[in-house]
């Protein structure tokens, strides 16, 4: 009981310090939030929102239960970080797979997505598609290695075979998928903003740079470990960073892990996912280093000669958010009407 009280006092003390920092260093907080909001509008929403809608349709239509884990594995490797775990959580909620299966397979049905890799990583840092292909292939091979390892040491649970669902699609499924995807994207963006404020606090108190010195990594790489969307701060055209980038993209950053808690709503444990991702990140680093000579030969161009990718305008993302809110409001109205008992 005494330890519990000390723990609560420590939490309150840290919250007071954090709140004091936010009040006294409002300019630093403003800059961090503005940068995070820009990344949400120009990176996260364009690269992930459509795939979140598609994943909802796949789950609700019965495609996921029809074709099983191999289909989810392939799709999630190119769709974006939360997509695979979202489908698996939906399947667990429907009792199509066990909780243990959802936890284990969420660790391998996990990928950055081609839109993020080409748009944010290879496009902004290198200005070519070769590096994007290398990072994607390294991640896919590392995930495949993790999948094989899991299949060797893990026996899939459940004694009875779940009957395959018929694949059906209607407008209601699409509307619901759009509405739920909008909510999930909002949760993800709030997580990015929260991590941006936390990083600002760690930098302002000196903790961030102390950690950077302890682990022997640059502050920009440490920022990317916290939030993968911060990779656009890394040095441009530095090919020696490619294995580290591949490992970072395979891991996804602590912010992505935190986002998964919102996506799963606490239904499954994230510990197996974290352990599998650490193993996969190491494998991705090694694979990328081995494959580099085959992908970047002739790519060592002067920085001034590289055409760097420019972030798109945030206007389409803002319009997309407005339309999503409209769809969500209409969906809630229709759902409310359907829940009301019909009067005779």
Question: Your description of this structure?
Answer:
By secondary structure, this protein is mainly alpha-helical. The chain has one domain (27-156, 167-298, 306-335). Helices cover 74% and strands 0% of the residues. It has helices spanning 2-24, 26-61, 63-79, 81-93, 99-106, 114-125, 130-153, 171-204, 207-215, 219-226, 242-251, 253-264, 271-295, 315-339. Helix 2 runs antiparallel to helix 8 and helix 3 (63-79) packs antiparallel against helix 4 (81-93). The longest helix is centred in the N-terminal third of the chain and has 36 residues, at 26-61. The radius of gyration is 22 Å and the shape is globular.
How are the elements arranged and paired?
Elements: H1 2-24, H2 26-61, H3 63-79, H4 81-93, H5 99-106, H6 114-125, H7 130-153, H8 171-204, H9 207-215, H10 219-226, H11 242-251, H12 253-264, H13 271-295, H14 315-339
Helix pairs in contact: 2-3, 2-4, 2-6, 2-8, 3-4, 4-5, 4-12, 5-13, 6-7, 7-11, 7-13, 8-12, 8-14, 11-13
Provide a compact summary of the structure.
This protein has helices at residues 2-24, 26-61, 63-79, 81-93, 99-106, 114-125, 130-153, 171-204, 207-215, 219-226, 242-251, 253-264, 271-295, 315-339. By secondary structure, the protein is mainly alpha-helical.
